[in-house]
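Hey there, shall we discuss this one?
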Amino acid sequence: MIDRRKFIKSISALGISIPALQSGLLAKTPVAKKNNPVILCSRGEKWGRKVLKPGWDILRKNGALLDAIEKSANVTELDPNDTSVGYGGLPNEDGVVQLDAQIMNGPDHNCGSVACLEGIKTPCSVARLVMERTDHIHLVG
């Protein structure tokens, strides 16, 4: 059985060799073109095509990434058959549908979030308004 010291030594030796390996690998790796958008979905092709189409359309026209993210999220939020979020979301123990959402702009790390919204079908859009129009990060209610 390996003890903690031997384990740490073996990990640190590996840590030193990784940058050396990467420098050799990176020199041979072609650089991807930056102007080709990529959009991914982890929930299956049928669902993904429906949800990601508005975002893809925005990106293809050189639109803003944040617009694409918001509009793709809105598709799920407005689907009454999707019980995970939005309009079709399941009610809480009091029988009230309360929605939460968060959005972040990667380049400047600005973010906005909302929780416990009632009577709003697109909480992602409200979270974006919190990010862009207030000094707050998170609003509840």
The longest strand covers residues 110-117. The longest helix spans residues 4-28.
